[in-house]
Each structure stands twice: as C-alpha cells, then as structure tokens.
Amino acid sequence: MRYRELGRSGLSVSEIGYGAWGIGESGWVGATEDESVRALHRAIDQGVNFIDTARGYGESERIVGQVIRERAGDQVYVATKVPPKNRIWPAPDGLDPAETFPGTHIRESLETSLRVSGLDHFDVLQFHVWSDEWVGRGDWLEAIAELKQQGKIRLFGVSINDHQPDNALALVRSGVVDTVQVIYNIFDQAPADALLPACQEHGVGVIVRVALDEGGLTGRITAGTTFPDGDFRRRYFRDDRPAHIEQHVNAITTELGIAPDEIAETALRYVLSAPAVSTVIPGMRTVRNVERNTAVSDGRPLTSDQLTVLAKHRWQRNFYA
Questions:
Q1: Residue ranges in the chain assigned as alpha helix (H)
Q2: Nearest CA-CA partner of 75 in 153, 4, 12
C-alpha cells in the first residue's frame, strides 16, 4: 500500500481508503455484517488506514467502530459525517446554515456517532452536504473549533454536493476546511478544472468518492441490469441508463484495448493519477473486493497516452436526480 499526505493535516493516509456506506445495510442490498467485518479486517491487513463512514449510513458507524476497537494496535483514521438538520440532500441554494448545521446539531450528531461507534474521537468530521453560501455565516465554525479543542475531532471537512465541485471553492479558499470529499471519476472529470488545483494551492486534502460511478465503471452494468427493491441503485440505474453505461464503458475499453473486467482498475488508477487526490474510497463489502481494489496501490500509474484517451470520455450527467 502506498500513502499520501492528507492536505496540510500531517496525516499520511492510504491512497486506497475504505468507503463504508455499503456495509451499513442502508441503501445497498446484499451486505452481511459477518462479511463486512471480515472485509474491514482484510483492508487493514492490506494497509488501508482510512475509513469513511457517516451517521446516515445505517449500521456502518457501529460496525466500523467495532473493528477499530478490535484493531487497537493499528493506526487507522476514521472519518464520519453529520447529516444536515433539515435532512435535505443535496443542499439547495437559499438555505440558512441555521437550518442545516447549527452548532447544537453538530455537537449532538457527533456525540451520537461517538456513542454508537464506541470511539473516543473521529479523525475527520464532515458535513454531509455543503453550500458555499454558508461561508462566514452561522455558528458552525465555532462549533467545529470547540470540538477540535476538546479533542473529539482532529480535522474538519465537507462532502460536496453531487456533481457540484465548484460549490466548495469559496470554502477551500477561506482556509477553514481541512478536507473535501468529492465525486471524481472517468465520467465526471469536472473537479480537475478548478477544485483540485485550489485544494493543492491551499493544502486541503481530497477524498474521492464514487470513483467507480456506483458500479457503472466496473464493467458489470449492462443493458437489462436491474437491482432489488430497497437498493438505491435501482433508481440510479433506472430505465435505459444501464444500456447507456454499457455503451460508454465499451467505448472506453475498446479505445484503451483492455478487457471489460479491467475497467474498475483503470478507473481507480485514473483517480490516483491526480496528484491533488489524497485517497479514494471505493465501497468494499467483500474480502474479494478489498483484495482487488487494494492491489491497485502498486505505484503503476496510467500512461500519458491512456490519460489522453480517458479525457475524451468525460460524460456530464446526474443519475442521482
């Protein structure tokens, strides 16, 4: 496993992190707690030292906390998230920060996360949505400063609204945020336009989510693919979207001259080719997925020719809508 600096924080994190939404049995169908625990342990064995969870991820915080306590001798950093008080995802324009992240709500959410996880602190506390309209408004920054002083959190970050990378530029430039979490992948290349350079300039760590497009960049979504009731992917890949995904993935693999089952590896290597990226957090619900994804951290970057090809496959769309 190779490691990168998490912005100016002084923390060195595994470039392959662990996205823990899927193991919480909330939104994703098919996870089992026994396999999730085995996957987490295997990830740590493989050198993964950064795990991303959230208050809104069902049982995820509890499961992650259990494993972290069992691996007390290993240095593993855990990030969690505070849901917006108004429960609106993503954050639309025009909201007052008092509606979304008042100080009392931030403290109460964190205390719940600490209690559920059994941990005494979190290394990163993130807001689960963000709007740059909130910079300089509300009492959220005072609450964050207080929690840092109390030792309950080390760093503050935000999870940027889906496909809105420029909606955190003011926050990054303000100097008050330590990390940002953003969707960045072969299809959504927009963060590279302005956000990633700004994060490099201001020493902000970049946590990349959805590097595999919720499964679209794995080669396993094809025309006719369906998901069970209760799985959010049933909506994400609804109607004729799987067919469009298959067409785009086939175009990429054909032009690169790779097999369909190599697209996931290529997608992770694409994200890691950006020097501003600190870690990428694919969801890994099984030991097999852990072993496949962590193997990508081998120091073999994509070539400039491959990156040139991938730049042509930018595909702006919002399947969350």
A1: 33-45, 60-70, 97-100, 103-117, 140-149, 169-174, 195-202, 233-236, 241-256, 263-272, 287-294, 304-311
A2: 12
Q: Which two tokens stand for residue 40?
A: 């987490």
- pLDDT tens string, the chain, 321 residues long: the values are 999 999 999 999 999 999 999 998 778 788 899 999 999 999 999 999 999 999 999 999 999 999 999 999 999 999 999 999 999 999 999 999 999 999 999 999 999 999 999 999 999 999 999 999 999 999 999 999 999 999 999 999 999 999 999 999 999 999 999 999 999 999 999 999 999 999 999 999 999 999 999 999 999 999 999 999 999 999 999 999 999 999 999 999 999 999 999 999 999 999 999 999 999 999 999 999 999 999 999 999 999 999 999 999 999 999 999
Closest to 211 in 3D by CA, of 287, 312, 158, 284: 284
Strand partners, 4: 13
Q: How many other β-carbons are positioned within 10 Å of the β-carbon of residue 88?
A: 13
**Nearest CA to 201 among 169, 232, 229?**
169
Instruction: Match 């996931």 to its residue by tokens.
Output: 264
> How far is 286 from 43, CA to CA, in rounded Å?
10
pTM comes to 0.98
